[in-house]
User: Which sequence fits this backbone?
C-alpha cells in the first residue's frame, strides 16, 4: 500500500508538508521539547553514559588488540585481554588524577581561605604601585574588598571542609557512574558481536545502494569522532604538562590545580584556552600579581604554539573545516546542548562539511544534469 501511495504525485509534497509542520512545531516549542527529551534520556542515563565510556575507551582497546597483542592467535582471547588492560589503565589514570587533584584542591582551598586577607593586601599594594593607580581609587577599593573578601573568606572557611562530604553524599550520581562503567566493560567485550549484528540488521532493512552510502557515512563519522577524541585528549595532556613544568620552574603555587584546569579547558574549542587563562590568572593574581602576569603571558604564548604547531601536527588538517564554521557550530550547539554541544562542535562541523561537499553537492549536480538532459 505504501508503495502505491509513494507513486502518487501528491505523496512527496504531503510528506514534505508534514515534516515542515512538525519542524515548525518543534522550533516554536523548543524549550518544552528539549525538556521532554532530557527527561526521556534521563531514564537511559546509565546506558548512554556507558556507551560514551565504551566509545572513548575503544580506540585504546583496538590499539592493544592490533599492536601490542597482535602475535596472539586466538582473536577472542586477544580482544578480552585488550579490554581488560584498557579498563585497568583507564581506572588507574582516573584514580591517579583524582588522587592528585582532590587533596591538592582541598589543600589549596584551605590555604586560600587562610591567606585571603594577605592576598587582598598584596593585590591592593601592587595596584597602588602600578601605573593603574592613576585610574583606580585604591582607598575605596580597599574598603569594598575588605567587606567582600571577609564575606568570601568566612564562606570558604565554613564550607571548604564540607566539599568532600558533599561530593561523597551524591550517591546517586556515583552509583550511575559505577553502573555505566560496568556496562561499558560489557559493551566493549561484546562490541564485535554487536557491531556484526547491527550491520546485518541495517543490511536487511535498507536497499543495497542506500546501505552502502549509509555505511560509508557511519564509518566516516566514526573516524572523525575517534580521531578528534584521541587528538584532543593528547593535546590537552601536552598543554597541561607544559604548563605544569613552567609553573614548577617559576615556583608558582597551585601547580596541579591550575595545570589540570588549563588542560581540561583546552578541550573546549575556541573559548576553552581563554577560560583556563582567566581562572589560572585570577588564582595567581591574589597570591602574586607578577606571577599572574607571567602566567598569562606564558599561556598566550603556549596557546599560540598549540594553535599553530601542536594541533596542526596532531590533527594533520584531517578535518578540513573552516574556522568560521567551527565558531558557528560551537555557538549554536553550545546554546542548544551546553558543554556536550561545545565539546562535539568540531566533529559536528566536520560531519556537516563532508555531508555537504560529498553527498549534497553531487546529488544536486546530478539532478540538474538529469533535468538538463531530459529537457534536451
Assistant:
Amino acid at each position: 500500500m505504501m508503495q502505491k501511495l509513494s507513486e502518487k504525485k501528491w505523496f512527496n509534497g504531503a510528506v514534505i508538508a508534514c515534516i515542515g509542520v512538525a519542524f515548525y512545531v518543534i522550533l516554536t516549542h523548543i524549550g518544552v521539547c528539549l525538556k521532554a527529551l532530557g527527561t526521556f534520556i534521563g531514564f537511559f542515563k546509565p546506558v548512554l553514559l556507558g556507551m560514551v565510556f565504551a566509545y572513548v575507551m575503544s580506540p585504546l582497546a583496538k590499539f592493544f588488540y592490533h599492536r601490542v597483542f597482535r602475535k596472539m592467535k586466538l582473536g577472542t582471547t586477544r580482544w578480552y585481554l585488550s579490554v581488560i588492560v584498557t579498563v585497568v589503565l583507564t581506572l588507574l589514570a582516573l584514580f591517579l588524577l583524582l588522587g592528585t587533584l582532590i587533596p591538592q584542591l582541598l589543600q589549596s582551598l584551605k590555604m586560600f581561605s587562610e591567606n585571603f586577607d594577605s592576598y587582598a593586601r598584596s593585590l591592593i599594594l601592587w595596584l597602588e604601585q602600578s601605573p593603574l593607580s592613576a585610574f583606580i581609587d585604591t582607598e575605596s577599593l580597599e574598603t569594598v574588598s575588605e567587606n567582600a573578601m571577609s564575606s568570601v573568606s568566612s564562606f570558604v572557611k565554613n564550607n571548604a571542609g564540607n566539599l568532600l562530604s558533599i561530593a561523597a553524599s551524591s550517591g546517586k550520581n556515583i552509583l550511575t557512574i559505577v553502573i555505566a562503567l560496568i556496562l561499558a566493560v560489557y559493551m566493549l567485550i561484546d562490541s564485535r558481536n554487536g557491531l556484526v549484528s547491527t550491520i546485518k540488521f541495517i543490511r536487511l532493512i535498507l536497499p543495497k545502494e542506500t546501505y552502502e552510502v549509509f555505511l560509508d557515512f557511519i564509518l566516516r563519522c566514526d573516524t572523525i569522532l575517534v580521531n578528534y577524541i584521541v587528538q584532543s585528549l593528547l593535546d590537552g595532556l601536552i598543554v597541561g604538562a607544559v604548563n605544569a613544568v613552567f609553573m614548577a620552574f617559576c615556583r608558582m603555587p597551585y601547580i596541579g590545580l591550575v595545570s589540570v584546569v588549563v588542560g581540561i579547558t583546552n578541550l573546549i574549542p575556541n573559548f576553552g584556552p581563554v577560560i583556563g587563562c582567566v581562572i589560572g590568572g585570577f588564582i595567581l593574581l591574589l597570591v602574586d600579581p607578577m606571577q599572574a602576569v607571567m602566567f598569562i603571558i606564558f599561556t598566550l604564548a603556549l596557546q599560540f604554539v598549540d594553535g599553530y604547531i601542536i594541533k596542526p601536527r596532531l590533527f594533520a588538517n584531517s578535518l578540513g573545516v573552516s574556522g568560521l564554521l567551527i565558531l558557528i557550530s560551537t555557538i549554536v550547539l553550545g546554546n542548544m546542548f551546553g558543554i556536550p554541544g561545545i565539546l562535539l562542535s568540531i566533529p559536528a562541523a566536520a560531519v556537516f562539511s563532508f555531508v555537504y561537499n560529498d553527498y549534497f553537492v553531487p546529488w544536486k549536480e546530478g539532478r540538474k544534469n538529469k533535468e538538463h538532459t531530459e529537457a534536451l
